[in-house]
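so i finally got all the pieces together for this one. its two components total, 402 residues if u count the protein bits. some of the lines might not be protein, just check the labels. i wanna see the whole assembly predicted at once instead of chain by chain like last time, that was a mess tbh
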Amino acid sequence: MTAMCDVAFLLLTFFMLATKFKPPEPVVVSTPKSISDITVPHGDIVLLLTVDAKGRIYVAMDDRPTRQSVIEMVNSDKDLKLTKEEMNTFVADASEGIPFSALKAYLDATPDQQKVDEVNAPGIPADTAVLAPNNELAEWIKAARTTNGKIRICIKADGAASYPSVQKIIKTLEGYKIFKFNLITDLKGIPVGTAAYDDAHKSDAKK
Amino acid sequence: MAEMDTSGGGHKKGPGVKKGKKLSTRIDLTPMVDLGFLLITFFMYTTTLAKPKTMEINMPYKDPNDKVEPNKIKESVALTVLLSKNHRVYYYEGMASDPTKPPDLKATTFAAKNGIRDEIIAKKKMVDDMKRAGTLTAKDEMTVLIKPDTTSSYGDMVNMLDEMNINDIKVYAIIDITDVDQNFIKETEVANGVK
């Protein structure tokens, strides 16, 4: 009994330490399903673009130094006149869906107010042309890419989001010559009797 | 297991000394262990299930300064799929590159039976047969052109890309829908009485 208890608590400690909780998400997104079972690249090198069912775009980066550098770059490029404290608020925040024009006011607000703002946020404005003046998404991507050249772009969009809203992101990425990116999906089973099913079972038989 | 010897070393007490009632110092650990296992179960589930999966996608290389874009794909290997509203799927053989011969647009769904998958499999078989017969060279691959229209949803696009993986289609591309294709959809909708 004692030995089993010891093992149980050892396991408990291990899982508790090994678990990394998901950062709070501004919006609930139910991703479409696919048979692809590639895991998402490591969190630190991911620029996550979330698109909710209404087509609002949010940007998120896990790595704090990257966020710091990105906000500094955006601040100077777009002349947002953010103070040091406001930038620190941004660094501590998980994701952003506020246009540049409202960013300063948002970062000044209290944490409770920020949560409300985040939910009501209009999303990052985007356009199919990279150089369009209202394509703020392009600015974020540029800043993230300049900070970390190896950054991987993951699009986590709701299955109900309209295609044009995702198309804006794809076109913007293409404008920066980013042709390879990841779409985050849920796993589903491979339908029986298809080429992929045969393939998966052939490799099983080999083992 | 968690008990202590509290019998007091065994020295004898005098006759006038009242014996204190001995309380058991055994603690019942069962609830704690239960809780421990409950937490283990919780953490085990959250660690493995929270990992989302991803689909890697390579868009065709495009350079706005590069005007050379020859249409290398043969009509006979191409299948054009149009995605429209309410998860509706339209498809036709070829690429409709010849305006004098409008393609035969057919409507279908993402259903597992008699859906777009069966069409893809049939087309793939056709291309393979043509390869064997020598009408096509070994280099020719079946190509699927995916054209989501403005009313389609992102989920449909992912579904379609997934079909490519499911049916092992090596060459496919997401292309902007043309006005011609938009008209095809409209005509078919009118013909079928779809609003």
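Chain A touches chain B through 57 residues (CB under 8 Å).
Helices of chain A lie at 2-18, 64-78, 84-92, 100-108, 111-120, 136-147, 163-175, 195-206.
anyway lmk what u think
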